[in-house]
Amino acid sequence: MAGIETADIADLVNATLSKYATNFLADAATDLRDFPAAEKLWDKRRQKADWSGGKDFRWDVLYKGDSNFRAVGYFEVDNTNQEDGTVEATVPWRFVNTSATFDVKQVSVNDAPQKIYDFVKSKEVMAWVGWFNGLEQYFWDGPSGSTDKKIPYGLLNYWLAYNASTGFYGGNHTNWASGPGGIDCDDANYANWKHYTFDYENVSDEDAVLKLRTAILSTRFRGIPNKPIADGSYSDMDEEAFYTVLPNIISLGTLAESKDDRVGRDLGKYDGMVTVARTPVIEVPYLTANHATSAPFIGIKWKQVKVPHPAGQWFREHPYEKSPLQHDSRVKQIDASRQIALVNRRQFVLGAKSDPLSD
After folding, report:
1. Phi-psi category of 138—alpha, beta or left, where left has phi over 0 and alpha has psi -120 to 50?
2. Number of folded domains in the chain?
3. What pTM was computed for the model?
4. What is the 3-state secondary structure (H, E, C) of 55-91?
5. Which among 32, 177, 180, 273 has most CB atoms closer than 10 A?
6. Domain residues for 226?
């Protein structure tokens, strides 16, 4: 009986139970290999205790200093004036929801000793997979235009605006004429609300890398020392990163290896650990899947990313309840009310080969 396996012996198959890996569920549910944005957005450090409640979320932006400073002589007459120097940014609330359901008869079928893993918990895992997929999509893209009143404000479709010029040219988004946060970047008074932009063709020292280095240094605003009102405007190094697509990560790794005469046996020594000017460059699987053509480099100062929310609505997980029309069905709802806010927009960077809206 050489050359056969267990499944070929009918009596042995009929007489023997399979061996199952119990309480184990291999996760192959999503095409995204990682969730760098969703993980950050889920961190409660993104919220502030006194930034909740109200009909919407607003914060003030200081866009200039005054002109009272001057050189003076003895007994000179004072010349003190007061000027307006702040503008208000506003974003509306957005709400997200997911749910899981089961029929109580399914629980009876899934009872010990026949239970391999918990059927109800598997439905909850599926709900959370959808939740993190959705958060990732909403952060990097967001709503398609001003007519969308549901999706939170994301980066490429709201907060950041592509421009092929190098410098602070990220003005009003094409689909949001009123300006991000309601601040019109076309108004000369609010030019400092624009973010940094650049266009590139190749991941080389002379092109993308040089522009990344320039962008990093150009957006590190410290602000004046000893401010009476602190804003945390300068992000620590561990809170600053660039996010991009997989081919760019591979190209940067290859470029780094070409400069290292001690690479040794590791032919991918710098894959996944590339830095430019000590700033990490990280792959975002969502960008790889959805913006491979424009291949953006998105520079983020995470201290400037906030997730304000209505009071008490950061996250609500409801217990299972009976469905009103299906007496044996139980449904759990999970809700969150929040918005994504870039509170100091000029510290962000969008570099790309083309407009990400065209991908």
Report:
1. alpha
2. 1
3. 0.89
4. CCEEEEEECCCCCCCCCCCCCCCCCCCCCCCEEEEEE
5. 180
6. 41-61+86-358
Alpha-carbon gap, residue 33 to 289, rounded angstroms: 11
Residues shown for the chain: 359
Q: Using one digit for the tens of pLDDT, what is the confidence trace for 230-277?
A: 765 544 444 889 999 999 999 999 898 887 656 656 556 667 778 999
Distance between first and last Cα of the chain = 59
With respect to residue 201, please indicate whether it lies within any of the assigned structural domains: yes
Cβ-Cβ contacts under 8 Å for 236 (sequence gap 6 or more): 303
Whether residue 162 lies inside any domain: the answer is yes
Residue 277 lies in a domain: yes
Please give the DSSP secondary-structure letter assigned to residue 242.
E
Q: Which helix (H) or strand (E) holds 299?
A: strand 297-301
Instruction: Specify which residues 332 forms β-bridges with.
Output: 100
Q: Is residue 33 part of a domain?
A: no
Place of tokens 């998105």: 298
